[in-house]
Protein backbone atom coordinates (compact mmCIF):
# COMPACT_ATOMS: atom_id res chain seq x y z
CA UNK A 1 0.00 0.00 0.00
CA UNK A 2 1.45 3.31 -1.11
CA UNK A 3 0.96 6.92 -0.11
CA UNK A 4 2.51 9.86 -1.92
CA UNK A 5 3.65 12.73 0.32
CA UNK A 6 3.98 16.10 -1.40
CA UNK A 7 5.27 19.43 -0.25
CA UNK A 8 2.90 22.36 -0.92
CA UNK A 9 4.76 25.62 -1.54
CA UNK A 10 7.09 25.55 -4.51
CA UNK A 11 5.56 22.26 -5.66
CA UNK A 12 1.81 22.91 -6.04
CA UNK A 13 1.44 26.60 -5.23
CA UNK A 14 3.83 29.56 -5.31
CA UNK A 15 5.73 30.43 -2.13
CA UNK A 16 3.35 32.37 0.13
CA UNK A 17 6.08 34.41 1.83
CA UNK A 18 7.60 35.44 -1.51
CA UNK A 19 4.17 36.58 -2.73
CA UNK A 20 3.69 38.53 0.50
CA UNK A 21 7.18 40.03 0.17
CA UNK A 22 6.26 41.27 -3.31
CA UNK A 23 2.87 42.59 -2.14
CA UNK A 24 4.40 44.54 0.75
CA UNK A 25 7.69 45.54 -0.84
CA UNK A 26 9.64 43.99 2.07
CA UNK A 27 12.50 42.01 0.45
CA UNK A 28 13.55 40.37 3.75
CA UNK A 29 10.34 38.30 3.69
CA UNK A 30 11.53 36.49 0.53
CA UNK A 31 13.59 34.07 2.66
CA UNK A 32 12.17 30.53 2.55
CA UNK A 33 13.16 27.00 3.56
CA UNK A 34 15.14 26.87 0.31
CA UNK A 35 17.46 29.49 1.85
CA UNK A 36 17.31 28.66 5.57
CA UNK A 37 17.39 25.03 6.76
CA UNK A 38 16.57 25.98 10.40
CA UNK A 39 12.78 26.43 10.39
CA UNK A 40 12.57 27.86 13.90
CA UNK A 41 15.20 30.49 13.07
CA UNK A 42 13.33 31.34 9.84
CA UNK A 43 9.95 31.76 11.56
CA UNK A 44 11.35 33.91 14.37
CA UNK A 45 12.99 36.09 11.72
CA UNK A 46 9.67 36.41 9.83
CA UNK A 47 7.63 37.18 12.95
CA UNK A 48 10.09 39.90 13.97
CA UNK A 49 9.81 41.55 10.54
CA UNK A 50 5.99 41.41 10.64
CA UNK A 51 6.03 43.06 14.08
CA UNK A 52 8.46 45.74 12.92
CA UNK A 53 6.15 46.65 10.03
CA UNK A 54 2.87 46.28 11.95
CA UNK A 55 1.63 43.47 9.71
CA UNK A 56 -0.50 40.54 10.85
CA UNK A 57 -2.55 37.56 9.73
CA UNK A 58 -5.22 39.59 7.93
CA UNK A 59 -2.69 41.19 5.58
CA UNK A 60 -1.08 37.83 4.73
CA UNK A 61 -4.48 36.18 4.15
CA UNK A 62 -5.41 39.01 1.78
CA UNK A 63 -2.33 38.16 -0.32
CA UNK A 64 -3.08 34.41 -0.15
CA UNK A 65 -6.53 35.04 -1.68
CA UNK A 66 -4.76 36.26 -4.83
CA UNK A 67 -2.52 33.16 -5.14
CA UNK A 68 -3.51 30.44 -7.59
CA UNK A 69 -2.02 26.95 -7.88
CA UNK A 70 0.85 26.65 -10.32
CA UNK A 71 -0.28 25.94 -13.90
CA UNK A 72 -1.00 22.22 -14.18
CA UNK A 73 -0.81 21.57 -10.42
CA UNK A 74 -4.49 20.75 -9.89
CA UNK A 75 -4.59 18.46 -12.94
CA UNK A 76 -1.43 16.70 -11.72
CA UNK A 77 -2.93 16.28 -8.26
CA UNK A 78 -6.28 15.06 -9.62
CA UNK A 79 -4.59 12.41 -11.76
CA UNK A 80 -2.32 11.32 -8.94
CA UNK A 81 -5.22 11.06 -6.48
CA UNK A 82 -7.02 8.88 -9.02
CA UNK A 83 -4.31 6.23 -8.79
CA UNK A 84 -3.01 6.38 -5.20
CA UNK A 85 -3.43 7.99 -1.79
CA UNK A 86 -1.90 11.49 -1.54
CA UNK A 87 -1.16 13.63 1.51
CA UNK A 88 0.29 17.13 1.37
CA UNK A 89 2.77 17.54 4.22
CA UNK A 90 3.65 21.18 4.63
CA UNK A 91 5.32 23.50 7.10
CA UNK A 92 2.74 26.13 6.26
CA UNK A 93 -0.13 26.93 8.64
CA UNK A 94 -3.81 26.05 8.73
CA UNK A 95 -4.63 29.79 8.66
CA UNK A 96 -2.80 30.04 5.31
CA UNK A 97 -3.74 26.73 3.69
CA UNK A 98 -7.55 26.70 3.52
CA UNK A 99 -8.09 28.96 0.47
CA UNK A 100 -5.33 27.14 -1.39
CA UNK A 101 -6.83 23.72 -0.57
CA UNK A 102 -10.15 24.91 -1.98
CA UNK A 103 -8.45 25.83 -5.27
CA UNK A 104 -6.73 22.41 -5.36
CA UNK A 105 -9.97 20.46 -4.83
CA UNK A 106 -9.63 19.89 -1.06
CA UNK A 107 -6.74 17.40 -0.87
CA UNK A 108 -5.68 16.18 2.59
CA UNK A 109 -3.04 18.44 4.17
CA UNK A 110 -1.05 18.06 7.37
CA UNK A 111 0.38 21.42 8.44
CA UNK A 112 1.09 23.61 11.47
CA UNK A 113 -0.73 26.42 13.27
CA UNK A 114 0.04 30.06 13.94
CA UNK A 115 -0.43 31.64 17.34
CA UNK A 116 -2.41 34.82 16.68
CA UNK A 117 -3.43 37.54 19.13
CA UNK A 118 -6.92 39.06 19.25
CA UNK A 119 -5.56 42.02 17.28
CA UNK A 120 -4.37 39.73 14.45
CA UNK A 121 -0.70 39.94 15.42
CA UNK A 122 1.23 36.73 14.78
CA UNK A 123 3.09 36.03 18.02
CA UNK A 124 4.35 32.49 17.41
CA UNK A 125 3.62 29.14 15.86
CA UNK A 126 2.93 25.55 16.89
CA UNK A 127 4.48 22.68 14.97
CA UNK A 128 2.14 19.70 14.60
CA UNK A 129 5.01 17.49 15.74
CA UNK A 130 8.78 17.63 15.90
CA UNK A 131 10.54 17.15 12.53
CA UNK A 132 7.03 17.16 11.12
CA UNK A 133 7.68 15.82 7.62
CA UNK A 134 9.96 12.97 8.65
CA UNK A 135 7.85 12.11 11.71
CA UNK A 136 4.69 11.96 9.57
CA UNK A 137 6.31 9.71 6.95
CA UNK A 138 7.63 7.38 9.69
CA UNK A 139 4.14 7.25 11.24
CA UNK A 140 2.59 6.35 7.88
CA UNK A 141 5.20 3.62 7.43
CA UNK A 142 4.37 2.26 10.89
CA UNK A 143 0.75 1.94 9.68
CA UNK A 144 1.85 -0.28 6.80
CA UNK A 145 2.23 2.31 4.04
CA UNK A 146 5.18 2.60 1.71
CA UNK A 147 5.92 6.27 1.09
CA UNK A 148 6.97 8.16 -2.01
CA UNK A 149 7.80 11.83 -1.48
CA UNK A 150 8.54 14.95 -3.47
CA UNK A 151 9.53 18.46 -2.47
CA UNK A 152 11.78 21.38 -3.29
CA UNK A 153 13.44 22.52 -0.06
CA UNK A 154 15.84 21.56 2.71
CA UNK A 155 12.94 20.62 4.97
CA UNK A 156 11.71 18.03 2.41
CA UNK A 157 14.94 16.05 2.23
CA UNK A 158 14.28 13.88 5.28
CA UNK A 159 10.89 12.65 4.02
CA UNK A 160 12.34 12.10 0.53
CA UNK A 161 15.21 10.06 1.96
CA UNK A 162 12.98 7.99 4.26
CA UNK A 163 10.67 6.62 1.57
CA UNK A 164 10.94 3.88 -1.02
CA UNK A 165 11.30 6.61 -3.66
CA UNK A 166 11.85 10.34 -3.57
CA UNK A 167 12.05 13.17 -6.08
CA UNK A 168 13.09 16.79 -6.10
CA UNK A 169 10.75 19.16 -7.91
CA UNK A 170 11.62 22.67 -9.09
CA UNK A 171 14.37 22.89 -6.51
CA UNK A 172 17.52 25.00 -6.39
CA UNK A 173 20.74 24.19 -8.23
CA UNK A 174 22.52 23.99 -4.86
CA UNK A 175 20.13 21.33 -3.48
CA UNK A 176 20.38 19.36 -6.75
CA UNK A 177 24.16 19.51 -6.60
CA UNK A 178 24.29 18.41 -2.95
CA UNK A 179 21.75 15.58 -3.45
CA UNK A 180 22.42 14.07 -6.89
CA UNK A 181 20.97 10.72 -5.76
CA UNK A 182 17.42 12.09 -6.09
CA UNK A 183 15.98 12.61 -9.58
CA UNK A 184 15.05 16.27 -10.08
CA UNK A 185 12.15 17.31 -12.28
CA UNK A 186 10.81 20.61 -13.58
CA UNK A 187 7.39 19.63 -14.96
CA UNK A 188 4.42 17.69 -13.65
CA UNK A 189 4.32 15.12 -16.45
CA UNK A 190 7.87 14.00 -15.61
CA UNK A 191 7.10 13.86 -11.89
CA UNK A 192 3.87 11.95 -12.46
CA UNK A 193 5.64 9.41 -14.68
CA UNK A 194 8.37 8.89 -12.07
CA UNK A 195 5.81 8.40 -9.27
CA UNK A 196 3.78 5.94 -11.37
CA UNK A 197 6.95 3.95 -12.04
CA UNK A 198 7.74 3.87 -8.32
CA UNK A 199 4.26 2.73 -7.25
Question: Please, could you describe this protein's structure?
Answer:
By secondary structure, this protein is an alpha/beta fold. The chain folds into 2 domains: 130 residues, HAD superfamily/HAD-like (Rossmann fold); 48 residues, thrh gene product, domain 2. The protein is built from 9 helices and 7 strands, in the order E-H-H-H-H-E-H-E-E-H-E-H-E-H-E-H. A 7-stranded mixed beta sheet has the order 4-3-2-1-5-6-7, with helices on both faces. Strand 2, helix 5 and strand 3 form a beta-alpha-beta unit. Helix 3 runs parallel beside helix 5. The radius of gyration is 16 Å and the shape is globular. The relative contact order is 0.18.
User: How many H/I helical runs?
Assistant: 9
Oligomer: single chain
Q: How is the biggest beta sheet arranged?
A: 7 strands, mixed
Task: Tell me the name of the CATH homologous superfamily of the largest domain.
Answer: HAD superfamily/HAD-like
CATH architectural category of the largest domain: 3-Layer(aba) Sandwich
